[in-house]
Amino acid sequence: MKKTFLLLAIFIAPAIAEQKFMCVDPGRILQESKLVKTKETQLRSKVEDYQKQLDQINRRLEDLKKQIESKAIAQKVREEKIKEYQRLESEGLELQQKANKELSELKGKMEEEIGTKVKAIAEEIGKKQGLTGIIDCSALLYRSPEIDITQEVIQRLDQQK
Fold first, then answer.
1. What tens digit of pLDDT does each residue of 133-155 get?
2. Could you tell me if 27 and 139 are in contact, meaning their C-beta atoms sit under 8 angstroms apart?
3. What is the DSSP code (8-state) at residue 72?
4. Cα R_g (the chain), whole angstroms
5. The model's pTM
6. Rounded to an integer, what is the distance from CA 10 to the centroid of its chain?
7. What residues contact 22, with CB distance under 8 A and at least 6 apart?
8. Quick check: 16 pLDDT over 60?
9. CA gap 5, 3 in Å, rounded
10. What's the CATH fold of domain 17-160?
């Protein structure tokens, strides 16, 4: 039994020692990449556009509410204002739902695009350097700084734009 274990250890140990891994820190990529920042700016711009539209609707709703609550308007005019208020409120809800859906889809596409690019870059580096694999740096309890290729991935990612 001891001989078998010793033989296995002798033959398996070199195979394990020959494996070479590097790691990438996705958090750093999200914080430091210019491409990611550009995509975030585009998303933020879209959010601001929708917010302006919603703010405009809300201002109009506030104006209508004041008019409806006013004692100086006729009942027929009040009823028309209530209908307009309800229509505008419905438009606002529809716009908000549309914005949430579109922004969620856009964010998902951006994340998928960046993830695909990072994976392709990591694969290219791994093949070029003859690596066994590239893993998430946060999965390691200890790592030598030499195995972190995050900066190289960020540089290549930013060159792609």
1. 999 998 888 888 899 999 999 99
2. no
3. T
4. 29
5. 0.73
6. 46
7. 125, 126, 129, 131, 134, 135, 147, 148, 149
8. no
9. 5
10. Protein Binding, DinI Protein; Chain A (3.30.910)
